[in-house]
Amino acid sequence: MADQAEAKTFDAIVMAGDRGSYKPVYGTHKALLRVAGEPVLSHVLGALDACRYVARIFVVGPKGRISRSLENSSLAGRIRKELILLEQWDSLLENAWNTFLATLAGGRGPLTREEEELLRQRHEERAALVLGSDMPLLTPYELEEFVDGCDLDRYDFFLGTTSEEVLRAYGPQAGAPGVRFAHFCFRESKERQNNLHLIRFFRVINRHYAQLMYRYRYQRRWVNVFALFVRLLCLPEVRARMVARFFLLHAARVADQRGWRGLLKLARRGLPKSRIEQDISCLLQTRFASVPTTYGGAALDVDNEEHFEIIRLNFERWRAYQEELHARRTRGTGGGIALATPVAR
Q: How far apart are CA 342 and CA 345, in angstroms?
């Protein structure tokens, strides 16, 4: 995949909408909160600007507020890549789909069905990088690691994941607060999904199911688990074994959180990661794969006030850790990437 990625670049779609099931932080748009003197969104854009696999950057959300926030950031006038702001639609799915179409139609959207079909015929193979707007510790290193891991010869929809081992560096330490993470416990590993996706939109038949998953994404709340289960039962693609694995995933999560080692070991036996990926492929009617990344920033999103404060307090220390990690990995190779967004001191 490395040769393929170096031969082409991808447009990036930054999801910054604040309608529908969006959860504000401190009563405001979380991507516009400031970390190290910069809007969270500026840190994301800085990483994209420095990533060699990114062509253009599209941001979809409340266009006026985003524009004003970026004008008051140090990124203004410094970003090298083309940056296009689009006014948001009413849902996550509309934002992602219409923005993807805009990448094909010169920034124009939405389109008629006839125009969409013409674009499908011309650009069925086109993929776009889709990511959240609330990851202040995202780095170009992690973006490139993710793209390098995406095998477009075999799959059409990629989701980033981050392992428990990687995220330990961002957990509570002696004398310093950290983020406590919940993980999916597979047979081979413990991971959580992060906020990176590479998608061939025209190859995802049931892309509308993504809206369902987003609506019930907070799986620590049992009401959401039950509601999602009921909705899944109504889907024609769902099979009995998929339902069984759904319950095993949540049983393993609870067992892991409560230290029930026996139940955790038993549940994980029925959860090979490859089987879960096949279930998602069947559900979405696409070829799905997960891609691990090892820097951690893509999993550190601003979900709530507590996470925001922890990230804000630890930002410079964690950014220094990421820089040192990257330096160790590239030492002697002459590699390296300069972050486009300066860290305020």
A: 9
pLDDT tens, position by position, 56-95: 999 999 999 999 999 989 888 889 999 999 999 998 999 9
Here the tokens at position 105 are 């139609």
> In whole angstroms, what is the distance from residue 249 CA to residue 271 CA?
7
Using H for helix, E for strand and C for coil, what is the string for 101-159?
HHHHCCCCCCCCHHHHHHHHHHHCCCCEEEEECCCCCCCHHHHHHHHHCCCCCCCCEEE
Neighbours of 234 (CB within 10 A): 7
Q: Decide the pairing of beta strands 38-39 and 184-185.
A: unpaired
Q: Locate 279 and state its tokens.
A: 């279930």
Q: Tokens standing for 180?
A: 């406590």
Q: How far apart are CA 114 and CA 111, in angstroms?
A: 8
User: pLDDT per residue over 231-282, tens digit each?
Assistant: 788 888 889 999 999 889 989 988 998 999 999 999 999 999 999 999 999 9
Specify the pairing of strand 54-61 against strand 190-199: unpaired
| Six token digits for residue 294 | 């090892």
Residue (of 220, 241, 216) closest to 231 by Cα position: 216
Print the SS3 string covering the chain: CHHHHHHCCEEEEEECCCCCCCCCECCECHHHCEECCEEHHHHHHHHHHHCCCEEEEEEEECHHHHHHHHHCCCCCCCCCCCEEEEECCCCHHHHHHHHHHHHHCCCCCCCCHHHHHHHHHHHCCCCEEEEECCCCCCCHHHHHHHHHCCCCCCCCEEEEEEEHHHHHHHCCECCECCCCCCCEECCCCEEEEEEEEEECHHHCCCCCHHHHHHHCCCCCCHHHHHHHHHHHHCCCCCCHHHHHHHHHHHHHHHHHHHCCHHHHHHHHHCCCHHHHHHHHHHHHCCCEEEEECCCCHHHCCCCCHHHHHHHHHHHHHHHHHHHHHHHHHHCCCCCCCCCCCCCCC
Neighbours of 210 (CB within 10 A): 20
